[in-house]
Amino acid sequence: MNSESGCIPEKLSSVFIIFGATGDLTRRKLMSALYNLVSDDLLPKNFVIIAIGRQDKTTDQYREEVLAAIIKYSRNKVDPKIWQKLSSMIIYHKFDFKDLDEYVVLKSFIRKVEKDNCTEGNRVFYLAVAPLYFETIVEGIQKGKLNEDCSGFCRCVIEKPFGKNLETATKLNESILKVFSEKNIYRIDHYLGKDMIQNIMVLRFCNSVFESIWDNKHIDNIQISLTEELGIGSRANYYEQSGAMRDMFQNHIMQIMSLVAMEPPVNLNMDSIRNEKQKVLESIEEISDEFLKKNVIFGQYGEGIIHGEKVSAYRDEENVNHVSETETFVALKMHINNFRWAGVPFYIRTGKRLGTTSGEIIVQFKDLPNTLYYKENRVKQPNLLILHIQPNVGVFFQFNTKDFTTHNDIVPAKMDTSSFIPDQGNTPEAYERLIHDILRGDASLFSRWDEVESAWAIADRIIKYREQMKIDLPNYKAGSMGPQRAFDLIEKDGRNWITV
Ligand code: BG6
């Protein structure tokens, strides 16, 4: 029982304070995720969303906007009863988060909301703002002592990008650590909220058929391919500073690679998992200029055709510098130098304005000797295990079998559990899982600082190399699958990018 208010807060009763409530992320992802959490009865009874924005509007006006967004973006059709429940949880609060002196007043507001709604004890601060405001808000939280009287938890959620390089990420981290302990910092990488990314561990550690051959004795190469038809839309200001390396490689790709290559954790506790992922990043082969010269390709899209429509070159997109050197594509080969993976190449590619939108992890197994069935001219197909992340979600497995129609041919059988789930992108679904985990205090699907740090150290090395290079850009057509040299990169090893 709370002595001042006389109410008994539930265990996870919380105020969920969103900085950036009128921004794109909140509108498109967070509110739909919260709606579906209400629908699935996964939010505590006493739960209040304080939506902080700089615009002048009433709570009723804001609720109307949220409803319109949920109708547009939610995976579930809006049920008036569920909406009513969510709507009553939302309070819009006009506040200029740059004004550090005002955070004391914000604290009084939060305290009042907590008392009125019996949520005392737990606060989540969700920073859904442009990265340049992360430090300001955290400083404000400290100055207004917003994090000091949580009798339960006080958690801080930070969207990506977490810094622009190792130096700025370290500085940002130090600022946050002055206010929140590591266990209360939730660094979002929305890929970790995707079903198939979580399924990597399940497939590996629940199936003896896979885990017993998950090593350099049996695997020929692994490919991680995240391709997008979309261009940069209205995000030029961000993307010009970021490029594919910072936007996709440093975070999503490094996280996927760690999950694919890690050793089995001793248990499923968040730190046991994150310790194993971190070891993978520490084992990545040293990246010298000599190595990069042979193993990395950067690209930028020129104009082209996608779905029959002409699309502009990157340099002609709104707000992009006409001589921009920003890479919209990267392909590279990496090695993990440990006992399990020595000698197995990891081929990675990601880019915008490519011919397909898809996310895949492809495991190609080693061939058996040709002595029995492949002496003649038969074309041998490799065993493949493909984890379809999106838009198809599921597992594909290819193995060789006798062709019963011809009696003597050998054909690849393709088993595929995937189904087309168009919304497996940067979706509310991933955010539902992540928000629920934040409330439950499970940070397994969030990046720990040492992971972010190691990933930046690797990305910085590659970015520095690119900055010194003179590349003739653009070097691929929108709608193609990237520069020719990305194909050469893998073909010179006698392999190819696998698509099925
Ligand atoms: C984001 C990047 O992190 O991931 C975007 O900033 C990219 O540029 C997006 O488009 C891809 O996410 P998803 O979930 O759509 O594959």
What are the main properties of this structure?
20% strand; binds 6-O-phosphono-beta-D-glucopyranose; single chain; alpha/beta; 500 residues; Rossmann fold; 9-stranded mixed beta sheet; Dihydrodipicolinate Reductase, domain 2; 2 domains; 6-stranded parallel beta sheet
Written description of the protein model:
The protein is an alpha/beta fold. Strands 7, 8, 12, 13, 14, 15, 16, 17 and 18 form a 9-stranded mixed sheet that branches. The protein has a 6-stranded parallel sheet with strand order 3-2-1-4-5-6. It is built from 14 helices and 19 strands. The protein is globular and about 85 Å long. Helix 1 (24-39) links the parallel strand 1 (14-19) and strand 2.
Fold topology:
Blueprint: E1 14-19, H1 24-39, E2 47-53, H2 59-73, H3 80-87, E3 90-94, H4 103-117, E4 122-127, H5 134-143, E5 154-158, H6 166-177, E6 185-187, H7 195-205, H8 208-211, E7 219-227, H9 236-261, H10 270-282, H11 289-295, E8 296-299, E9 301-302, E10 304-306, E11 309-311, E12 329-334, E13 346-351, E14 358-365, E15 384-390, E16 392-402, E17 410-416, E18 419-420, H12 428-440, H13 449-468, E19 476-477, H14 484-491
Parallel strand pairs: 1-2, 1-4, 2-3, 4-5, 5-6, 7-13, 9-19
Antiparallel strand pairs: 7-14, 8-12, 10-11, 12-13, 14-15, 15-16, 16-17, 16-18
Helix pairs in contact: 1-2, 1-3, 1-12, 6-13, 9-10, 9-13, 10-13
Residues 160, 228, 247, 359, 425-426 line the site of 6-O-phosphono-beta-D-glucopyranose.
